[in-house]
Structure formats: C-alpha cells, structure tokens
Amino acid sequence: MFSQYRGYKAFLMLMDALLPVVVLALMVKLRPYLPGKFLDVGYVLPSPAVYLVVALIWHVTFAITGVYSAHKIPSFSNQIGSVTLAQGLAFLTLAGVLYFSFRETSRMLVIYHSAATYAALLLVRYGLTMYLSHMVNGNRRNRVLIVGVSRVALSIAETINDNHGRFMEVIGFVDGRPSDAALPAPFLGGTDEMARTVRENRVETVVVALSRDQAHELESIIYQLDSLPVRVYLVPDFLQMSFVNASAERFGDLIVIGIREPMIQGHRRVTKRVMDIVLSSIGIVLLSPLMVLIWIAVRLDSRGPGIFVTERIGENGTIFRMYKFRTMVQDAQDLLGAALEQEVDGGTVYKVKDDPRVTRLGKWLRRTSLDELPQLVNILKGEMSLVGPRPEQPFITKTYDHWQWERLSVPPGLTGWWQVSGRSDAPMNLNTHFDIYYVRNYSLILDLKILLKTLGTVISGKGAY
User: Where are the domains of the chain?
Assistant: First the structure.
C-alpha cells in the first residue's frame, strides 16, 4: 500500500547520510563566531576521517531504529518521535567514538553539530510531507476500492480512514453477495461488474479482502483486473491467526507466504546479535570470579549441583538447555504440584512467594537476580538474547492459547519488558501481554531502554522471588 513511497525513502536515506556531513563542514566554519568558549590557538580542524565516521553513524543508526518505515513517510508527526530517538542515539555514538579516537575534536563543535543536524533533518522531512500534501491537493487522493465486506475488509477501511485519510480515500466496496451491513463507504455492486465500477469511479488501488469462504472467487476477480491500470493488493483473512511477521516471496513459479518467519530479521537481527555477543562476552570475563564464588556457595549451602540445567522453549518453539545457579532443593521439580497456587480467576501461578523449595541462599540469589548470570553462556551461544520474552517452560506452553505463541516469535531474553514491569508480582496472564507488547514494538531503542530499567529493577529487588 505504501510502495509509491520507496523513492522518497531512498531520498531520506541519502539526506540522512549527506546532511550531517554538510552540517559538520558548516559548523567548522561557524564555530569561531558561535557562543561558547573558543580558543583560536590550538583549535584543531576535524580529521577527514571524522566526516566519514559521521556519515556512517547517521546512516546506520537511522536504518536500525525504524526511521524509514514506509507508513511514516507521508506524516511529519509520525516521523518526529523516531527521528528524535535516532538522532539522540547517533549523537551519543559519535561522542563515544570521538572520545576513543579523535579526542582533539571540539566538544562544543559536536554539540552544535548535533543540534543543527537534528533541525536540518526535521526540516527536510517537513518539506517532504508538505510536498506530498501539495501533490495530493493538486491532484486528488489515491482512490481505493475494497473487494469484500469481511471483518478484514472493514479493518482495512478503518485503518485508511483513521491513519491515511489525507492520502487515500475509500470510495466504496464490492462483493459477490449483496450486503446490508453498515459500511464506512458506499456499496457499489457485485464483483461480476467490477471492471465497470473501477473505470466509472477512477479507481487507482484495489484491495481484495475476501472472507475465507469466498476464496474460490479470487481467480475470477484477478482476471477482471488484469487489463485495468490499477494497483492490486491481496489481504488474506487471517485475523483469527497469530501471524506476526508474515512475508511473501517467489518460489519458482509460485508465491509463498511465510507465516512463521523470525520476527527480527535483516540488519536489526545482526545488530541485536552483535550487541548480545559483545556484552555477554564482556560480562562472562568480568563476572567470572563472582560466578565461581556463587557456585562454591551454592554447593556448600545445600546438597546438589551448583548449576541447574533445565529445558526451555526458545524462538519459534525450539527447545534448548538453559543454565542457572541452583536456588531450590534437589528434586524440586518433583515437588512442583505442592508449590502451585491459584489466581482469583482460576489461572495457575507457577512462581509463588515463600516457595518452600527455595534454599536460604537461593532467596538472596533470586532477589538480586544473580542466579541468572550463567545465562550469559546461553546468550553467547545464540540460544537467548540479552533482551526478550522470558524463557518458558515446556509444560506451560502446552496450555497456551493460540495467540500466546506470538511471544515465542523472537529469542527469549535474560531480561525483558515483563521483568521491568513488575516481574513476578504481575499476574501470569499479564506477563504474556507484556511479552507480546515487546514482540510487536521491538526496536534497538526499546532494548536499550529495558537494559537501563533492568538496573533499577535489580537494585530494588521488587517482584523477585
């Protein structure tokens, strides 16, 4: 639906790499005349390498933070938040790189550059949205015809009217069966006369959103549209299914739809994996003396191994062996039934306060979250991530409703949105909702936010047991 904005996306990507360099060159010339302490003696011009670093940082940072999502391009207000977050991250990254490399670069120059670049990038986007609005006003909105009156068809119309009404207009619906339902646009007739309807109403885009029991009509509809100068989009009626990140691709002469693809793909997955490898490696090296001491303490505190190894469900249902410091008595799994409690609504709680199976040292390890440190090895192996939904136990997933499996479409994490939003104090049903929120709103910025909030949560010990 937003393929017409691909050219504008390429334009923004070019501007986001070029403008920071141009602004840096301009700030270098203006620095002697700008407020702030300036010493002409010893003022060192930035190395040519700094310009390359600036271009690279802004390009990569804006690419991995979701700034170029096509649905945001026509709306300036939708772009402000993502540009602000990306600009802040780029500024911090540049400051860190310069600190470890070109330390002679003026700090005030970097600050002026960041502020001016932010203003310039927003100005470019404002100008682009004004240009797009002028194109719409000078011509007309994209006229959309929806084929079908199913729930998904009505959802498409609602989305267009609520979020993209400045650029798109639903001119009506057609369907193979007469409809007396309340529609947000006129019912224009049956699908057998769709070619005439398209021509008479100057339709530019056709969205085919039939219900599943009308799938046999699809071939006839596509044939009617073949000779017409319209864009055609097919929206399968999958509302009852939890397809989080479906993707279409060509497979020989066929078009296949992937419905269990990894949710995090491409450069976002590479960035997340690099961060996991770097930070888990640093953590293992720095914390190895502490982990040895904890292992010895666990062995001395109670009978049993120092490391507890258990099966957990990972991304897309894969099973892996997760490591923790043992915090319960040996054979605690055999005593699980006696430790379970029931929520008010009848839902089972699998992690309870004052669990009699937890050892004295285990209570302290859980409160400080130190029992989770061996999972750094799982992260390094790629079985887990620093941030993600909590690793689930196999017997719990057997009771999942279909929608709950959405939380398993990303790698499980050492910490996550659930852990920083109440941890074990939150009801079990809300835990799943927290995880699904993370899946649907994933970004590098959200990962960094969760990592920072985790520090405060661990220090307070709230909800840990």
Answer: 3-138, 142-240, 266-460
